[in-house]
Every structure is written in structure tokens, then in C-alpha cells.
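not sure who needs this but someone in the group chat was asking about Aldose 1-epimerase from Mesobacillus maritimus so here u go. i didnt clean anything up, its just raw.
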Amino acid sequence: MRVYQETFGELNGQTVTAYTMVNDHGMEVTSLDYGCIISKLIVPDQHGTKENVVLGFDTVEEYVKHSPYFGAVIGRVAGRISGAEFELDGQVYKLAKNDGEHHLHGGNVGFDKVIWNTEVVEEDHSVSLVFTYLSMDGEEGYPGNVKLKVSYTLTNDNELQLAYEGVSDQKTLLNVTNHTYFNLSGDLKRDILDHELMLKSTQFAELDSELIPTGELLSVNGTSFDFTAGRKIKDGVEAQHPQNLLAGKGYDHPFVLDENQQKEIVLIDEESGRTLVVETDQPGVVLYTGTQLGEDFEIRGVKSRKYLGLCLETQGMPDAIHQPSFPSVIVEKDEVYTATTKWRFRV
């Protein structure tokens, strides 16, 4: 196993570095110290052909100008916070309104838009990139100085382990995820409508017209949101379910996971033979099917369009700070926040 690095570009006078981890089977993961972005993930198909299965760019400029969070770490809080404010212990904290009247994915300069410190760790059977960042008190409106660590570990089992850790010197909010867009066809040969998804989830969060959870959990039973036995993504695109229509004919929804660390999320592309198994310790996953991808840019020579990739954002529930029935995303002073997710690729 090995790691190599190269200069990816420059941003505001700072060098952006790309690190590529390669295991003994030829699986490659390229990540940037800018936003901890996973810019390439190369795995074989059923014929042994190695291709990239995530959406990303080859220049910093494209990420700055066009990226809808491709491959990035999201924080301090993933998803939307309604009204772009929250209250802790009687104090109201006002956040950036970067999604209409709401706060999205950590604000204007969230974790996805800063350069992290990077350490390479090489073990006998794995290699890791360990990113660290100090998010200062008041950054994007959030309280507390937060020391953050994000680790990406590649193993010889064709598994990428994602681990997040944070400690704050004040009571604050933390709900971190990764926003990689997957397309298992390889090198964007097809869209993701024929991808089949299995989710061990019997409930999903109802959204209002601005894609904010209402607090109600709806049963998947008998709907296009029932992935318990597996179903194709296009089912939700063709469905007349009000929640599918609301999300732009597709999905942008938090699902409550019924199990953890038990192959609870499986994505399959039958034509390439590639399978992605996702396991996590988080209570939910946001399924987003790229319904808002614009058509005004290209992704490595392929015109961007709806349904070109899908996200499986393992995390706490969005807007949990305003929904008492959702698991809390409040972190106490000096409490260690942790979250882990594994992506395992098979053919």
C-alpha cells in the first residue's frame, strides 16, 4: 500500500495538495486538503476495468466556481437549519443565510471550503490521511473553538473508513458528514437512475416546501421510499408521491436507519457489477439524487445534469436542534464528538 501527493492548485495564496492512497488491489482514493474533498475513487468493475465512481473536478478553480459540495466534509452541521438560527441555554446564535432564509451545510465558509492540515499514516495493512482543523469560536455564527479531526483509512479489503472527531471548549452543535456523489457506472458513462438501492429503513423524515424536516416521520410502507427489499432510483423520479415531487422528482430525504453496522445501505449498478456497502454508527442517512445539479458546467468532460450522481450522507437528522423528537446534535463543553462510516466496494 502506498500514498503519493502532488500539488493540486492554489487558493488565496495557499497551496492545495492532492493525496492519493493506493491499496494492493489497485483501489485508489484521491483526497484534497481543501475541504477533505474525495475527488477520485477508482475501483474495478466485474471485468476488472478500473474507473472513477465519484463526481469531482481536476482543478481548484472548478471546485470554487461550480461544486455542489462534491466529495467534501460538511460541518459544523450537515443539512439545513431552519431560520438560520438556534438557541442554546437561552442564547440565540444567528447563522449565515446561504439557502434562502435558512442555513445549509455549515454556512458560506464551512468545513468544505477551508484548507486542513494533513498527516499521512502508513500501517502494514492500511494507509490513512488524517486531516485536522481548528474551527474558531464564532465561525459562521457557531459558538466554541472546535478541534476537528477527519481520518480516511484505505484497507486491502477495498474499504474506505471515514472517521470524524471533534472537541469544543463551549457547548455547541456538531453533525458532520461527507457529501460524495457516487456513480457506480464508472467515469460517468450513465446516470444513476438504474442504480438499485437497499436501505434498512422503515421511516423517513417528511419535508416542507423548503426542504426542512417538519418533525414528522413517515412510514415507507407502500411508497417509493421503501428500499427495504431494494428498488431502482428511477422509481422515485417517476413516482407521483408528493415528497418525491417536492424534491424535484427524486429524493433529498433523511431516512432513519433501523440497524447500524449491518450492511444497512447497499448500492448496486447491475451493468458494471459494482456494489457499494455502507455501514455507519449514525442514526440516519440523507439520500440525495442530484435533483439540483446544474447544467452550466462539465465534470471531467461530461456535462453536468440531474441524476448524474447520488449522495448517501450518513449523519444525525437535519434541523435536529429544532426537532425535540430527533436525536440531539448538541455537544457539551469538552465532550468528544465521534462518527464513523465505512464504504466497502465489491463486484
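also The chain is about 5% helix and 45% strand. if thats useful
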